[in-house]
Amino acid sequence: MNWRRGLLLAGIHLAVTGTLMVWLEMGAWRYIPSKPVLQRPVETETMGSDGEIIVSFKFCAEGSNWLGHQSPQEKIVIFENLPVVLLSGWHTPCSTAGTVSWMVEKRLHRTRISEIMIVTILCTLVAVQWFLVGGFPFVQLRRWWWEPGAFITLCILAALPFAFIRVIEPVALILAFFAGLAWLWWFGLLVWKTLRSGWWLAKRRVVHQ
C-alpha cells in the first residue's frame, strides 16, 4: 500500500470537494429551512391534445437541484467523486431509498442540520475513497498520469479555474466529463483485478488438492 500517495490524493480531493460544496451550499442556504416543514406538492399545468388543461402534482420536489440545473461546480464534484455521489445520493432529486441523503433526510427532513450532516458524511467518504484509490493503484505505468486516479486528479485540478468563468465554462465541463470516463476505466480495472484474483485463487486451490 502506498500511504503517501493515498494521503496526498485524499488531501487534494477533500480540499477541492469541501471548497466546492461550501460554495454550492452557500447559494442554496437561504432556501433550506432551519426546522422541518410540511412538504407541499408542486402543481404543474399542461395542455392536452383535445385542448383540455391537465393539472398534475409532483410530490417529490424537495430533492436538491435548488437552482433548477446543475452548475459547473456541481458537475465537477459529481464527476470527481462518482462512486461517493452514487452512494450518498447527493444533489439528486428525490433521493433513492437506501442512499445516505435519503436516510438522513428521512430522520431529520430537509433542514440545515441534515444538510450539514450530509456534507460532513460526504466529505468523510471522499477522503476514504481517495485514500483507497491513491493507496492501491491498479496499474503501475511508466507515465504516472495515465493511472486512473492520477488522471482524474489532473482533470479536476485543470477544470477548477474554468468553472468560475462563465465564458469558458464548457472547458471545465469537458475536463470533468473526461474524469467521469476515467472512473469507468477504474471500475473496469476493479472488475478485471477481482476476476483475475478469484481465478488465480481457485486455480491455486485446485493445484494443492
Describe this structure in words.
- The structure is a single chain.
- This protein is mainly alpha-helical and 209 residues long.
- It has one domain.
- Helix content is 63%, strand content 6%.
- The protein contains seven helices and two strands.
- A two-stranded antiparallel sheet has the order 1-2.
- α2 runs parallel beside α7 (169-208), α4 packs antiparallel against α5 and α6 runs antiparallel to α7.
- The protein is globular.
- The two termini are 31 Å apart.
Number of domains: 1
**Could you state the oligomeric state of the chains shown?**
single chain
- Give the structural class: mainly alpha
What distance lies between the first and last C-alpha atoms, to the nearest angstrom? 31 Å
